[in-house]
Amino acid sequence: MHNLPAGGWRITGDSATGKVDAPTTNILAEIGRRLASGTVGRVTVVAQVASPADDLSLARRASLANALTVRRLLEAGGLPGTRIDIRPLGRTAAAENAIEVLPPGIPSPSLGPQAEQAPPRP
Q: I want to staple 15 with a disulfide (CB 3.0 to 4.6 A). Which of 24, 52, 80, 96 is the partner?
């Protein structure tokens, strides 16, 4: 896991495929605590997968499952699930297993300019 330049975090490797290791589990719980207490608005979890390349529906479901795993870990840290938006992309042109956790107002580097989020609700 590493920090994104504009804010947020990016998970890669096995942890981005739903097989989250203990250190990443602890980090996500801490991120959930920080986001719950230090932000207002919705957090976005953007997930993409490397395969399968030939079945868009299966790739989308796999990215959804991976994003939901991260969502559960953020909730375990205290972030209410009602504040978490899930964006399962399926397989993208980058063809990589990756999950981004984005605080309110931070756009996804994976989506480019169209990923601009609405400002946090009052």
A: 24
